[in-house]
């Protein structure tokens, strides 16, 4: 998979950006250092002026790529979900057993992120932390319905549908496959956040990972339906 991913380009809705940041060295630098800066100071404190100072470029040059920092966050989170989707597809493609395939998918969606050397300008570990802490800010807005119609969240929704289809493969009588699939993806972010910040509100720790929890949750839900 490592060698396949070296040629990977995550196709992000071109309405999210004004100029494709992958098309130039400056664009890649904007992406690279925005991840570093948002991780360092948080999205609320992040501005294009601060990013410009960080990369030694005029603030106006960043606006040639992104209309505002909200669109930049949409770009970063879309890239993350697309990167995760490719991992899921390539890793599970050759698995024929439905339960084994779903288990592997849950592992990919919920595990702690490791850096991928195929993308030198994107630190996936830090981007994962940003998604855990900031992803909800990309859709908890007044514009969410219009942005959804424009396809801004299509990559994330496609990933959820892939998991849903795997759940149905395991148990096509289960009545809530989409809800369960979205619970795994959203819940994984939440469990990682709780483990890092509100440890008394989760059973996940150094021994019990979110992956362990969600594999147990999913298959107990399906087993309950089957056995019931």
From TrEMBL:
SUPFAM superfamilies cross-referenced by the UniProt entry: Homeodomain-like (SSF46689)
- Keyword Transmembrane helix present in the record's keywords: the answer is no
Q: Which residues bind DNA?
A: 47-66
The HTH tetR-type domain sits at 24-84
The cross-references to InterPro entries, in alphabetical order and at most eight, read: Homeodomain-like_sf, HTH_TetR
Which residues constitute the signal peptide according to the record?
none
Q: What is this protein called?
A: TetR/AcrR family transcriptional regulator
